[in-house]
Design brief:
279 residues; mainly alpha; 3-stranded antiparallel β-sheet; two-stranded antiparallel ribbon; 54% helix; 8% strand; globular
């Protein structure tokens, strides 16, 4: 903060301890600075976030906010590769969780692109900014040019031994075929992050602890409403963090930057609505 004080809003005048409290106690535990000049030849502007490693690992493992973990479902370029073994493992588990949840949302047969579209869309499902403020084709724009990058992330796990009895790829028609038995559905449910499981449990029991978690998930595995409960849980997480982080951004970015940043988002959304749909 001392080195890059110009990146911060008026909150910097309250000191670094105050900034740290805002970062950790509000929103998704990440502090974003927006519209920061990159000082390159093209005068580009960037947005960057600051988060504690422990908070990052917790979100990757448990999907407490799906704010950073959701962004890391997509291909990213690490400027500095993660050094911590705990962080490396958490990144891997985050990807695996995205696969298990996506398989629960997909039909028995699906394409590779549909899988990646489902994975990429997890952290946008429930985000109010997808209604007003985001490019309507955002998920497709992320996935379609990056199939190879998604494949590099997810193919090793899809081809791994634990997945062999759950999922097969039919090369004759380029379709995945998954096992949709209740036992396999229960397996996927048991692999979901803790926050998703807890929200599903509360839905099933009406906030009353009348079942053990495993029994509740087994009951859900045999229910035709499994997808509905999963989507409701994810939307609850995403909606909660998107509202709180956006409100937090009014202070961390400042009013003028927030207006400017929001205007850019609305402009992109408008362009996406006017763009002809591809057949």
């Amino acid at each position: 903060m001392r080195r890059n004080s110009r990146h911060y809003s008026f909150l910097k005048y309250f000191g670094p301890e105050f900034i740290a409290k805002i970062q950790q106690n509000f929103g998704a535990k990440v502090y974003y600075n927006t519209l920061v000049p990159l000082n390159d030849a093209n005068s580009n502007l960037i947005k960057y976030g600051v988060i504690k490693v422990d908070d990052l690992i917790n979100d990757l493992l448990d999907w407490q906010s799906l704010y950073i973990s959701g962004r890391l479902h997509k291909p990213v370029k690490f400027i500095i590769e993660p050094q911590s073994e705990a962080l490396k493992k958490a990144l891997q588990i985050n990807h695996q969780s995205a696969v298990h949840l996506s398989l629960l949302l997909l039909h028995e047969t699906f394409t590779e692109e549909q899988l990646y579209m489902t994975i990429a869309g997890i952290s946008y499902d429930g985000d109010f900014r997808m209604i007003i403020g985001e490019d309507k084709n955002k998920v497709a724009n992320i996935v379609k040019p990056n199939i190879e990058n998604f494949r590099a992330i997810y193919k090793p796990y899809l081809d791994s031994e634990p997945m062999q009895n759950l999922l097969q790829f039919n090369q004759s028609n380029n379709l995945f075929v998954q096992n949709c038995s209740s036992g396999v559905i229960f397996h996927h449910l048991s692999k979901l992050p803790k926050t998703v499981q807890q929200l599903i449990y509360l839905q099933l029991t009406n906030n009353k602890k009348v079942l053990e978690l495993d029994n509740a998930l087994m009951f859900l595995a045999k229910s035709y409403r499994v997808q509905t409960h999963i989507q409701d849980a994810v939307r609850t997480i995403v909606r909660r963090s998107s509202y709180s982080q956006t409100f937090k951004g009014l202070f961390t970015a400042g009013v003028m930057k927030s207006i400017k940043y929001g205007s850019k988002k609305l402009f992109k959304m408008g362009k996406s609505l006017l763009r002809p749909k591809s057949s």
